[in-house]
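quick one, 354 residues, struct below
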Amino acid sequence: MYKVLSFSRFFIVRLARALVVMLLILNLLSCYTVTDSMKSSDNFQAGKFQNLEPIEAKSLWGFIKARMTTDWAKWPKDVIINEGAPPPTSLNGSNARITFINHATVLIQVAGLNIITDPHFTERCSPLSFAGPKRVHKPGIAFHNLPKIDAVLISHDHYDHLDLATIEKLVHRDAPVIFAGLGVKRHLEQDAKVIEMDWWDQKALSDNVAIHFAEVQHFSGRGLWDKNTTLWGGFVIEVRGKTKIYFGGDSGYGGHYHRTYDRFGPMDLALIPIGAYAPRDFMAPVHLDPAQAVQAHKDLHAKQSIGIHFGTFQLTAEQIDEPERLLKSARAEQQLGEDEFITLQPGSAFNLQL
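---
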């Protein structure tokens, strides 16, 4: 009996210490400075960024409650490995190559440039190295097999999208240009080349490629007290003034897909999130389910869409293969062709004709 009590006390003390460390880290991460560019944004009000269509605020404690009251599916314990062949060094000519690495990490090779979205190659998406959602699928391309990266697109600062360890490695290895929303630069190293953008800002990456930052419906924050102090968004990559590739980052369903179409016209290719949506009463404002992803595809008038943001980290309650199954059903219900909105295995590539 004494040994059981001693073990329980030991466990409680260790847990308490871990929580204290986590709170200290989150408190440090919450410190921020309001810049002039943030103040000048129409979306920045009362010290916070806002969605154009207000959504119900969700708290950490609300998530914990949802986690405790919802049955979560069991995901595989063994890490899944299916790395693809190393991609080419670069790609010129009349095609773009889109390689799905996993989660929201996609390698886009176009017009001689290598662009990567929300690069995440570490084991967890968490402020702690020993706790938090753990990877169940290896990246489809190993980091050392990545070609030299010219540009990084960061949709927002959540841990499953802004992986500082991966960004640090890319900055030291390749010195890429990093495009991100207003305020995100404070999270990154001082020697990183960061271009902060407001919704609908445009920046030239090269003579042939322009980067646009697009509105989405989401939120931001890496600590307990910095919610919505950086701007979230998606991207439109415009190639040679005609081909448009959309990266949706993370989003709930809203009118922003129509507004993106109104500004840019039809998307030639859209990368749209399809996972991390259950339970719906909690996740609906900020994460699409597969049926809504198909509707977003329609709103964007996309010629081709690829599903992202699924099958890597268990962030929510659905089964690991459910997003792909429901996407198949949604395609049929909304009368889309099977090849019009697809998913790729990590490491697999899709060729887009420009």
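The chain has a mean pLDDT of 91.
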